[in-house]
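Fold Annotation — chain and its backbone

Fields — amino acid sequence, structure tokens

___
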Amino acid sequence: MKKIAIVAILITIATAGKAQYDALFTQYMFNEMFINPAYAGSKEAMSATLLHRQQWVNFPGRPITTSFSLHGPLMQNKMGLGLSVLNEKIGVLNRNLVYVSYAYRLKTGDNGTLAFGLMGGIHNQLNKFSTLKTNDDGTVDPQLGQNSPSIIAPNFGSGIYFNNKTFYAGLSIPRMIDDRVSFNPNGDVLTTNKIDPTKFHYYLTVGNVFTLSSDLKLKGQAMVKAVQNAPIQYDLTANFLIKEMIWAGVSYRSNAAVAAIVGMQVSPQFLVSYSYDYGINAIQKYSQGSHEIGINYLFSFKDKKVVTPRYF
């Protein structure tokens, strides 16, 4: 029964709360296009990124999230185009997000690029109530014997992004439609699809690479997320790059977790990374932390090879 109660809490958080909440990644810096469409094309090569997160291991109904993104420049780096796909399971909730991103990129006088981006796509949500075991004998309560209808809703977002070789900053609102899903006492599904500025989640990201020696660089990054009537959340990350090959760093998420991050730059084009989160809140008592793996690959163009790692 304790497990059922925990799952019920997770369902409430995931479905009755703000439906446009965004999936959590410690290694968000390798997949920023999902939170800012202006990031599309910023690597000046076709980039493919896969992230998989197992959150709160051993916690019943824990979030399990997988995302994939593909983006690259067009028209001699004057534009960027990308695709983002995400699947997330929380308790009985299964949701899928698919977005297309477009960025218009302008060269600036300091060898940088200023980009303006738009993203649009759909959310799909399904609650698999039939998988719940609600009685001691393993049977299912008749009121929860059927899954909820599969809900599909549109959404869109926008952002701006500046970067040069060693610095970047971005500001975005990735989801602008409040596509809330809830249930009334009769079990009917209630959906809301409207633009509500009071529900906007604002993301501010900034990062810089410092050269400490010929064999050691420090990449510092910060992400701040703000929404009306809620505390500001932030992530602070410091990653060291050793001999252009080994990444090693730490991260802090406000009032939630500290994390260790390691990565191998197999080649200038290919990066494999892993992070482990240790919770600093009450959930850590019931879980074994969170695990996340990432893979990023840059595809060389015929007239331009990738010869050094991309820092952002």
